[in-house]
Amino acid sequence: MRRLFARALARPLVLAAAATAIPLGSAAHASADSIVVGGFPVEVSDSPWTVALSSRDRFGGTRAGQFCGGVAVGRTTVLTAAHCLGEQVLGSTPDQVDDLKVITGRTDLLTDQGQEVPVRSVWVNPEHDDVSNAGDFAVLTLSEALPAGSVIGMAGEGDPAYTPDTGALVYGWGDTSGAGDYANGLRAARVRVLSDAACEQAYPGNDDGRYLSATMLCAGQDAGGRDACQGDSGGPLVGGGRLIGLVSWGSGCGRPGSPGVYTRVSSVLRTLGWDTAAARQREGS
Ligand code: ARG
Question: Which of 257, 159, 158, 243 is nearest to 200 (CA)?
Answer without folding.
Answer: 257
